[in-house]
Write a structure and sequence with these properties.
By secondary structure, the chain is of the alpha+beta class. Helix content is 27%, strand content 22%. The chain has 14 helices and 26 strands. Strands 1, 2, 11, 12, 13, 14 and 26 form a 7-stranded mixed β-sheet that branches. Strands 7, 18, 19, 20, 21, 24 and 25 form a 7-stranded antiparallel β-sheet that branches. The protein has a 3-stranded mixed β-sheet with strand order 5-6-8. A hairpin with an 8-residue loop joins β13 and β14. The longest helix is centred in the last third of the chain and has 18 residues. The chain is globular and about 70 Å long.
Length: 538
């Protein structure tokens, strides 16, 4: 069955997809169709900042992918939460706005991607943003659709953590998205007036109101359609595996914005990928492009949990009568614990003094979660420090396991496979412990519950990391941007799929190397650049 013809089809209404559709819609001369596998973003927990604890475990709005065992974790498998609703992962994430280091983007350009150096991408970061609060001059936008704010509610335990970090030589840096990233500060976040700022609400909903953008929800894409080597449309289903296939046509281009996991799978099921892999799936090869699905990288976070004394934590504030008070505060003033993000403090530092740029990150929050997973709160007064390495060397892959698009792909994170990654992570854990044992923060610590003060050696800490660490929810790289002819690249510097006309990828999957940051801010920037490429090239 063939539906109508649009100028552009955007696959995925996540962060980058919402930006692409919104900016194309602003032109007023294109008809745009957005296909989203999930429902509309009506779930209340999407919009309440603390609701992240529920969105991360809700299969109605979360793909809840399951990885395969990683050798570097002694065979432990990692689960991957990814957004499945309007706004995508930008509707279920922890709200953090973090761009990364200038050197990250300069490195992208050095890998064969002209126009992606930091001075090139900074204008697009600024274009999407309205920054409310402190910020270095020249680094922030003031009129973009996506509002970013400072945390307005200082917390005494967070203040003590920051003071202790300064005491061991880590400077306070009120704008880690400004001149320099190194240092510690309260996080910048996509929360405004007590509600989530989602990419869908900022970019996609205005496009829908303009009348030139159609959004089809619960649309599970089966494959991209081609005329020889030109992408001409998309086939999808809206009623599950047994429902009838539907198709729509693109007069200009198809833009794949399904994320680092789904974008790779869709390309493979469309016949673009490694020929040997596609043969195993029984999918005819349209283009032998070995890099599709490879270069999967993610931040591997290891958490330390503390039992706190002499001060209240969020754990106590959201139980019993205290919870009723917090609900009332949120309903009437949009303040209190429900208006807070899951992580309040960000710290960027170096694993060794010899390094010229930071390579590790610590986060702190005055709350703790069962088994270290942000899907509930412990019943004791708790706090959590999470550590990870900025730029892991270890790389994995995403590979379709069947020609059936409803089958989840195989996700191999390959975490901690490389010695360099293990050393950096151990250094981060030791920095965290040094802060915890320093005053004034140490005055509030009753016990290190996890990994436990008795675990002191590298071997013991590494065992803790392998047994308990988890994804930081930052997958990238599976449709890597790079020059034509490079064995592992999938798209060029204008995000066009090599060897194919009328098809681009615009999401975190195009990142040639993971950032020293969360990836939502950069996905907004990639969406902005993709929209400009589409407008200029067509």
């Amino acid at each position: 069955m063939t539906d109508e013809v649009f100028d552009y089809i955007v696959v995925g209404a996540g962060t980058a997809g919402s930006v692409v559709a919104g900016r194309l819609s602003e032109q007023g001369k294109y008809r745009v169709c957005v296909l989203e596998a999930g429902p509309r973003d009506r779930n209340a927990f999407i919009h309440i900042p603390a609701g992240v604890l529920y969105t991360l475990r809700n299969p109605k709005i979360n793909w809840m992918y399951k990885g395969v065992p990683s050798p570097g974790l002694n065979g432990r498998a990692i689960k991957h939460a990814r957004g499945k609703t309007l706004g995508g992962s930008g509707s279920i994430n922890g709200h953090i706005y973090n761009r990364g280091q200038a050197e990250d983007f300069d490195g992208w350009q050095a890998m064969g991607n002209p126009g992606w150096a930091y001075e090139d991408v900074l204008p697009w970061f600024k274009k999407s943003q309205t920054m409310l609060g402190r910020g270095d001059d020249g680094y922030h936008g003031s009129s973009g659709p996506f509002t970013v704010t400072d945390i307005e509610q200082a917390d005494p335990l967070c203040d003590a953590f920051i003071d202790s970090a300064e005491g061991i030589g880590i400077p306070c840096n009120s704008d880690y998205n400004g001149k320099s990233q190194d240092g510690i500060a309260y996080a910048q976040r996509s929360v405004h007036r007590g509600r989530r700022v989602s990419p869908a609400r900022a970019f996609l909903y205005p496009a829908i109101k303009r009348g030139n953008t159609r959004v089809i929800t619960n649309a599970h894409v089966q494959k991209i359609d081609f005329d020889n080597t030109r992408a001409v449309g998309v086939t999808y289903k809206t009623g599950g595996r047994e429902s009838n296939s539907l198709s729509i046509k693109a007069a200009r281009e198809v833009v794949l914005c399904a994320g680092a996991i789904a974008s790779a799978q869709i390309l493979q099921l469309s016949g673009i990928g490694s020929h040997s892999h596609l043969q195993q799936l029984g999918v005819s090869t349209r283009l032998d492009l070995a890099g599709v699905g490879e270069n999967f990288r993610d931040h591997y976070a290891v958490r330390s949990v503390l039992r706190i004394k002499n001060i209240a934590t969020i754990n106590e504030r959201v139980r019993g009568l205290s919870l009723a008070r917090e609900v009332a505060r949120y309903c009437f003033n949009r303040t209190g614990a429900l208006a807070l993000t899951p992580t309040l403090v960000y710290c960027f530092w170096k694993s060794t003094e010899q390094l010229t740029r930071g390579d590790i990150q610590l986060t702190f929050t005055p709350a703790s979660y069962p088994d270290g997973v942000q899907s509930g709160l412990d019943k004791f007064p708790g706090a959590t420090i999470a550590c990870w390495q900025h730029r892991p060397v270890s790389a994995g892959y995403v590979r379709a396991v069947s020609a059936d698009a409803f089958e989840q792909p195989e996700i191999q994170g390959n975490y901690l496979a490389e010695e360099e990654d293990r050393k950096a992570l151990l250094a981060a854990l030791r920095v965290a412990r040094k802060i915890v044992n320093s005053k004034p923060f140490s005055d509030y610590v009753e016990q290190e519950i996890w990994p436990g003060a008795e675990r002191r050696s590298d071997e013991e800490l590494l065992e803790h990391a392998m047994q308990t660490g988890n994804t930081a929810y930052h997958p990238v790289g599976t449709c890597r941007m790079g020059p034509v002819g490079a064995d592992d690249s999938v798209v060029d510097e204008r995000l066009r799929v090599h060897g194919i006309t009328g098809l681009r990828v615009a999401d975190a999957s195009v990142m040639p190397m993971i950032l020293s940051a969360n990836v939502n801010a950069a996905s907004l920037m990639i969406g902005e650049r993709a929209a400009d490429f589409l407008i200029a090239d067509n």
